[in-house]
Design goal:
Blueprint lengths: L4 H13 L4 H24 L9 H15 L6 H27 L9 H6 L8 H17 L1 H12 L4 H8 L3 H20 L4
């Protein structure tokens, strides 16, 4: 039986405080691996088969980003938000490299409901992922929490209740934030490419 993030909260918090040492990082990684795998699977569930980016590669690349950042996290909320962001960055970097290989086109319209409910291929729709990333960067300048909600919901695949717990707000707040973020992103993604 896999324990939930809430069940492991004290252990994760302790491991985070000791992650500056190699043994502490190993313990932390052992505790959060299943959660990272779940986040990676959610991230890649939107990808159609045939991509070269898989769950293991995504976890490894994200973990390397976390190591380079120095494992300085205030709490588990900060850690999981950083994991989701790191995985988003890895997928976007991968999409950019695939796009560069093809040397093709500009960004196209993206429907967030489609992103949430249907597979999206990193290889085939790199332009769309880059457009989403650009829109999220604009949103971050206005409201960083909305970006965290999007990353945790759409990129990490967490449920509303898990996000509310991680961010320390109510479930209705997360639902409102999701609607606000989707509205902003839809407007940004609907703009013609310059």
């Amino acid at each position: 039986m896999i324990r939930s993030m809430a069940d492991l909260s004290p252990e994760i918090t302790f491991a985070l405080s000791n992650a500056v040492e190699p043994a502490g990082r190993e313990r932390l990684f052992a505790l959060v691996y299943e959660d990272m795998a779940r986040i990676a699977r959610a991230q890649l569930a939107r990808n159609q088969r045939g991509n070269t980016l898989d769950t293991r590669a995504l976890i490894s690349e994200a973990y390397l980003k976390l190591e380079r950042a120095g494992f300085d996290y205030a709490n588990r909320t900060h850690f999981y938000a950083t994991v989701a962001c790191a995985m988003r960055q890895v997928v976007i970097d991968y999409a950019r490299s695939r796009l560069a290989e093809r040397r093709g086109g500009g960004a196209a319209f993206v429907d967030l409901d489609e992103l949430a409910n249907h597979p999206i291929s990193v290889d085939a729709q790199a332009e769309q992922l880059i457009a989403i990333d650009s829109a999220l960067e604009k949103l971050a300048a206005l409201d960083p929490r909305l970006v965290k909600v999007v990353e945790l919901r759409f990129f990490a695949g967490l449920e509303v209740s898990e996000i509310a717990d991680l961010l320390g707000v109510s479930e209705p707040t997360i639902k409102r934030d999701t609607r606000a973020a989707k509205a902003f992103l839809q407007r940004e993604l609907a703009r013609p490419v310059a």
